[in-house]
Amino acid sequence: MKKNIATAGILGLTALSGSAHSAWGMEQIIRPYQSVRSAAMGGLRTTTGKYEENFFGNPARMLANPKSRVTIFDFMAEINSGVIDNIGELTDSSSFYGAVGATAGTNNHVRLQMTWPSFFFPLRGGKSALGVGLIMSMQGDLNLRRSYELKPDVLMDFGPAVTYAQKFLPNDALGVGVTMHAAYRLQSDISIFDLIKGKSFSVDSSGSQGAHIDFDLGATYLLPIQPFKEIDFSASASVNNLLGGNYANLPVSPIPGIGLKPRPQPRTLGLGLSLHKDAHGRMKDTTVALEVNDIGNSNGGSFYRLLHLGGETHYGVLALRAGLSQGYFAGGLGLNLKVFNLDLATYGEEMTLNPGGMEDRRYSLKLSFQI
Fold first, then answer.
1. Which residues pair with 234 in a beta bridge?
2. What's the confidence (pLDDT) of residue 98?
């Protein structure tokens, strides 16, 4: 017991002295889905989403899919610079408390995600579109706060999504889409004091669970005023989790003994403007956009961490992407072959309520096979 108390004291002192960042408020924006393509473009998703990105983005963008697709494998993995820097301490099995104390001052982030199988079909000669997919996403963030709270923020979401979109108005200027997603969420939270008192990491000891059906609604509009020749100028908007994202309207509790409900996924609003050009020399399908995303999902943070600016262009089978997300540089590459896609990205995630407070540099990879 004395050893545990001494260990807690050391961890507390380490947390208090391990960083110059004020308040130690880890307030990142939690998202149920993360696209590597979107991350590389500075977090764009309301104006630029394609295929599986639209299950949790703008459902009207399902109309922008260039062709039908059946995805038979889709895997995404993401880590941050904290995991890279602290891999030795985190894998040291001799002392869990020592490992946590040694990494105080940094966040350790891992995300694994799968979207398969999934099916995407244009309907009525391209006047409408349908997408169906099964999504699993797990995100873990391990950091030691000044409150002595070991904040794993371990979330797992699992469930299907169905998106339908249709074009309206002359020249198909307006696209409207809706997504219905059913999701089960499992969450684990624990503190240093909980561990010292003997509480385990197991979900039946520190977990919460719940499930819901919720809806997203989105629209895209090709503006009648086109200021640039041969460049489309469009506006887009989406509302996600129309019912509030409370994981409480489906009676699904597969793990006995867990009665607590997990963290809600709040209703959010996304707005954006984009420019698109089909071809410019050898560059094809070029898009540049400015978006304000996660309105309502920022925990009261600064407006500036909702801003996203970026774009992509294609040169043969390569996609070149870059942007600014929450004030931090983002960039990446895509390799787009007929049956195989590879996407790489790096971006900065703001961990405090104000841009510039604490950057969490992340690195993402996605592999997918489709027919």
1. 222, 274
2. 62
Cβ neighbours of 299 (radius 10 Å): 13
Provide mean pLDDT across the span 90-106. 64
> If phi over 0 gives left and psi between -120 and 50 gives alpha, with beta otherwise, what is residue 205?
alpha
Q: What separation in angstroms does the CA of 36 have from each of 132, 205, 236, 249, 333?
A: 20, 33, 20, 31, 10
CA-to-CA dists, residue 285 to 43, 189, 226, 231, 318, angstroms: 18, 44, 17, 11, 11
Classify each residue of 192-222 as buried b or exposed e, where b means 16 or more C-beta atoms within 10 Å of its C-beta.
bebbbeeeeeebeebbbbbbbebebbbbbbb
CA of residue 338 relative to chain centroid, distance? 26
Q: How many CB atoms lie within 10 A of CB 303?
A: 11
Global pTM?
0.88
4-13, 26-35, 118-127, 162-171: range with lowest mean pLDDT: 4-13
Count of alpha carbons within 13 angstroms of residue 212, beta-carbon side: 22
Check residue 83 and report its DSSP letter.
H
